[in-house]
Amino acid sequence: MTPEAELQLLKHLYDPDGDVSVPAYLAGIGHGTVGAIFDTLTDAAWTRREDDPGNIHLIAPDRNAFVSWRPERPLDDPDPIRMVVVGGADRRIAWHAGFPDGVPEELINAFCAALSALPARVRPPGTPGDPGPAFEILTGAGWTRTGDTGTHTLTAPDNLATITHTTDPDPDPAPGAAPDGGARWQVTVGNAQFTGSWEVEFTGPIPDEPITAFCAAMTTDIVRHPEDLPDHVRRPTRTP
Question: Is the whole model's pTM more than 0.85, yes or no?
Answer without folding.
Answer: no
